[in-house]
Specification:
Blueprint lengths: L2 H19 L8 E6 L2 E14 L6 E9 L4 E8 L7 E4 L4 E6 L9 E13 L3 E12 L2 E13 L2
Antiparallel strand pairs: 1-2, 1-9, 2-3, 3-4, 4-6, 5-7, 6-7, 7-8, 8-9
Length: about 150
Amino acid sequence: MKPSSLLGLLCLLLSFCACQKDKAVLTSGSLTFAFDGTAYSANTATGYAADTTVIGKKVLTIEGLTSNLTKHIALTVIFPDSLAVGTYTQESGAFILWSPSLSANVASYLSTTATIKITSINSKYAEGTFAGILKNGEKEEPLTDGIFKVNIY
């Protein structure tokens, strides 16, 4: 094989590999976690990034519907500057909301402690882990083993 052909093949291969890095997740994304010892997997999961006008910060919200679309989870991170990899806690603007039923008669759980670790993020994709303690009235339950991979809209 000629050196110029080999170089052309190498360039083609490198450009193909470079494009794979920006590959988005499946349309539905993924989100899994355990709440009070029960494992959940989202039927669909997405991320939404927005600029807030009130506080002038970037906000990322990740949402998932589980159990045949009857339960809802939302993770929110308020970034100090721009969307960035890092570990965010409740004290720094990370929150988790868990609705074990979409019925108006069932109260949701809100985090009293939350840790959301963003391991990869850009304007179109985010992935990471999350955990926390969630409270509903006097009842507190652990949320553990959270993992998400979502497209950002």
